[in-house]
Structure formats: structure tokens, C-alpha cells
Amino acid sequence: MADLQSPPPPRSPTDLFGDPIDSHPLWFNQSSFLLPTFDSESYISDLRTFVPFETLRSELQSHLSSLKHELLDLINRDYADFVNLSTKLVDVDAAVVRMRAPLSEIREKIVVFRAAVEGSLLALQSGLRQRAEAAAAREVLELLLDTFHVVSKVEKLIKELPSMLADLSNGDLNSAEKDHLSNGISFQHTENGTNPREAQSMLLERIASEMNRLKFYITHAQVYLAVILMLTLLAFSCLGHCFIDGLQNRDENAIYNCLRAYAAIDNTRNAEEIFRSTVVAPLIQKTIPHNSLGMVGGASGDELEEDYKQIKQYIEKDCKFLLEISSTGYCPSRSAVAKFRAEAVYIDFIRQWNVGVYFSLRFQEIAGALDSALTVTSLVPIQNSHKGGEHSQDLTLKPSVTLLDCLRSCWREDVLVLSCSDKFLRLSLQLISRYSNWLSAGLAARKAGNAGSYPGSEWAISSVPEDFVYIIYDLNCLLAEVSGDFLGHVSELLSSCSTEVLDLVKQSILQGGKSLKDLIPPVMYSIIGTVVEKSVEAFLEGERATTYLTSENRNELLQGAAFEITGRYHELAADLVSVTRKTESSLQRIRQTAQRRAGASSDVSDNNVSDTDKICMQLFLDIQEYGRNLSDLGVEAAKIPAYCSLWQCVAPPGRQNTISF
């Protein structure tokens, strides 16, 4: 039977090589539709870049058809159970009635319990509300009592003023009677050595402190407003009259107490206005009367200078005492200083002085002056430069003079602001660094022979060796100034700082001086590299070297030239000896070869002196004379490594280890 079965139909090429009928392309992901963040517009915009709309529509229609088929299959699969459901549900109403009875009972209990809880909650809320109202009423009552006590105290203090301003200024006898009727306060102060004016100012200070308490009570309870306003006006009036009287009579104690009272009530502007109208305005009127204002435009410079001096004298005589009253000592702790700096008046005053902008302007002024001086194209000494010996501190080159002037400008009394002392210290070090970089770039350009890679170094290319003598001289002067007077001046200005800060400042300035000192050897080497081609002795005996170089610098220059010349001499002599020995060795081998060909014995030694020995002997005599000449100049030849190597190269075998002339 198996043999009689028909074979399966042949499969088409689409079935073999194409995609299955129910399959979808890889770009069509069905799970994307189930995501909670699925968005149809973004989905289509993502696929439109590589899938045509027709293809996408056909795939979506195919997917929709498959979903409909699946839905029908699910409905048909459970349809029989759905139809038979009514036959399986028997006596449902009776079961519902049986379950409803206990549920109704539970509901009734819950309603009763809820009513009881709500009643208790309402009772508690009512009790809490009554308690809060009682607490608020008690707080208001306490506030009213405190306000009443303060108002009563202020009224009592105002009544106890020793004397009224009119009686005090007129000096009549009624003041004594009023003082006698004011609970004896004035007589008590008089017996204690306090004048009535000072006693009045002290009492006004107490009133001001109590008025400050009233401000707090007013913000919390709007009570006694009329009384408080009347007391405030009366206290301000009495305080103003007392302050004016203290200024007119120059009573420092009374002025101090009044100022404390103004500070307590935060009314410093009124004190400033009174001082301006009582003291400043009469002084200006006395100096520049109203009838001479029309002549100010044609006034000469001498008249304005005289007015300025007169105003300064008035300030010194009639205004400076106010600064002495509030001088140092009234902020004894850091917290007091912090509180003082947190006041609005102090903040407004400090806001007028923008220290950052001031330093920026000074920075541009000082650093710009040095940059302008460093744009020179040649080293030309300034006129009238002093040439008075190696200890002279007069600089010769304009860049050096400008550097020293800029360093001193940073710490001048009319420039320095102590709060910016760290910035001015940094500026000083930057000036020294700028000068050092200028010199280093010039030396590098001179060594390279081209100033193209070093902008602003044209001066080094065009300078002769004698010009670098000025640089060495200026470096010595700057080093002495920076490490001496300049350091002492800065330390004196910063003497109020701690020891640790002063040590750091000293180290930084000395480090800047060391950077200047480190420039001297490269400058020396630049001179040596040029003068060795000429006459070192003529250079050292020249006018500039004898005038501007110290004995130490001359010795260093001579030592460097001796090392350089000896090194070159050693190279030439060693090359000569080496070439001579190689030539002599070659000739000897040729001669021995010729003797062997002729049949002569090659063992016969040649007792004649070789050319190499002759040259070494001549060089040995020369370096002995050269060593004696170095000794005459003060240079020890035995301490020059190149000379020792040359001695061992040309000296006889018995004298190679001992250098003697």
C-alpha cells in the first residue's frame, strides 16, 4: 500500500528559495506594537527611510488580516463553553440572598462604629481648636503686656530727661529746677562727674534701645500705634537736639552715646544728615561763600589750591575728632568684626570701592610700562648713567630701570591697597618673570643666529659683546635691590601679617631674585663665545668691562674664556697627535713590508726619534708656557679638565701624572 501512495507534489522555487508565506521581513517587528511607548508617527518616520510606503502598507494589511484570523479562532475555540454557561448556573439567586444577609449586618456595624469615631474626632478637634485659640490669646496677651511695659518704660525715661535742649542751649537757671524735679537723676550724674549733656545722651541711648524693642513688638501686634509713633517722634527729636549740642560743644562722650543710639534704632542716615548740616555745611560756606560762586569759573589755580588746603585744615580740625571717637578697639573679636561688616551701611560704603577694577587699572599701567620698555631693538645705555664703581646701584639700560620702577610702583603708598597685597605681590613676581623671559629669549635668538622664532629679540642679534656687560651690571644691581631694600620694604608693609605669611612672601621674592641670578651665567657664556675669537685680555681691559664688571664677574669671565680656549686647544692638539701617529704607523708598516721583500731583517729597531714624539715634545713645551701664562692671569691650569687631558696626551711618560711648569 505504501508503494501505491502517490508522491507529494513538486515544490515550487518560491517554496525552496523564498521566504515562508506567514513570515515577515526582519524590519517588521510585531512586538513594537505592544510597547507602552509605541507611537505610530515615529514608527512610520523611522521606516520610511529604507522601506517604501507600498511595502509597509502591504505588510501592515497582512498583519491586520492575521490578527483578525487569530481573533476568530479564539472566539470559536471557547464558543461552546459560553453557550453552555447558562445551563451550568443553577440556583444563583438563592446563593446571592444567603451572602447578602451577613454583608448587610457587617455594613450596619461599620456605620455605627464610623458615627462613634466621627463624634470622638469632632470632640478632639474642638478641644484642640479651643486650646490653640487660648494659646494664641495668651501669646497676644503676653505680647501686649510686654509692649505696655516697654511703652511705660520709654515714657518714664523720656520724662526723666535731665533737661530740655532749649534750657541746655540757653543756659538759664530753669534747667536746674527741672533737673531737681526729674527724680534726682541729673544731680546723681553731676555728683558722679558726668555733665548734664552726657547724662542726657546716655538716657537717650537707653531710650533708643527700648525703641528698638518696640519695633519688634509692632511687627507682631498692631497695638499702641499712636502712642508708639508719638514716642518715636519725641525720642528722635530729643536725640537730634542732643547730637547737635554735642557736636557744637565737642563733647565726645555725648556724641559717642548718641551714635550708639542711632545705631540701635538703625537710623544712621539721620545722624549723617545732622553732621552734614551742623559741621560740614558751615565749613564749606566759610571757605566758599555764596557771593563768590560766580567767580569760581575764573578763579586761578593758586586760589583753588588755597581753598583745597583750607578745606583739609577744617577737616583735620573739626571733623577728625569723629573718627577718633569710633577708632579701633570697638570690635574686640572676630564675631564683632563680622557683625560690623554685615551691616547695610558698611556694605553700601564698601560697594563704592571696586578693588578689582582698581587693581586691573594699576596692572595695565604698571605692566604696560614694562612691556613698552622691552620692545627695544638695540641696547643703548641711558644718559647720565653713573659709572662710579662696582657697588653702584644706578642701572644702565632702560628695560632694567623700568623694571625697578615698576617693582617700586607696586608697593608705593599711593598705589598699594593692603586688601590686594597678594595681587600686587603676584604682579611683582610676574614683572621679574617677564624681564627674565625677555633676556632668555634674546640669548636663545643670539645663539640660534635668527630672531624669527623669538619675537622681540632683535636687540640680541644686533648687540656686540660689550653691550652684554650692561646686562650683567644691571642684573647684579637688580639682584641686590630685590634681595635687599625691596624685600625689606615689602616686609615692613606686611608686618601686620603672620610669620608664616611673611616667610612665604620672603621666599617668593628671593626666588624671583634667584631667577635673575640664574641669568648671569648664560649672559657670560654669550660673551665668552664671541670674545674667544678675539682678544680676551683686550675685552677685559676695555672701558666697559673695567667700569661695569665686578672683580667676581671679571674672574668668572676669565675662567670661562680659559675653559673654552683650553677645550678648543685640546681638541686641535689631540687631533694633530692622533693624525701624526696614524700616519707614522702607516709609514712604518710600509717600510717593514719593503724590508721583508728585500730580505732584510725587520727586527732591527729604529733608534731615531719619531715625528710623533717630536710634535708631542713641542706641544708639551707650548702647554707649559700656556699654563704659566694662565697662572699670570690668575687661572689655575691644573683645575681645567681639558688642560689635564692635554697634559696626559703630550707629556713624556714620566711626567704625565704630575703637572708642573
TrEMBL record:
Location(s) in or outside the cell: Golgi apparatus membrane
Limits of the COG complex component COG2 C-terminal domain: 351-538
Membrane topology recorded in Swiss-Prot or TrEMBL: Peripheral membrane protein
Conserved oligomeric Golgi complex subunit 2 N-terminal domain span: 26-100
One Gene Ontology cellular component annotation held by this UniProt entry: Golgi membrane
Alphabetical list of PANTHER family matching this protein: CONSERVED OLIGOMERIC GOLGI COMPLEX COMPONENT 2, CONSERVED OLIGOMERIC GOLGI COMPLEX SUBUNIT 2
The protein's name in its UniProt record: Conserved oligomeric Golgi complex subunit 2
Species of the source: Camellia sinensis
Classification of source organism: Eukaryota, Viridiplantae, Streptophyta, Embryophyta, Tracheophyta
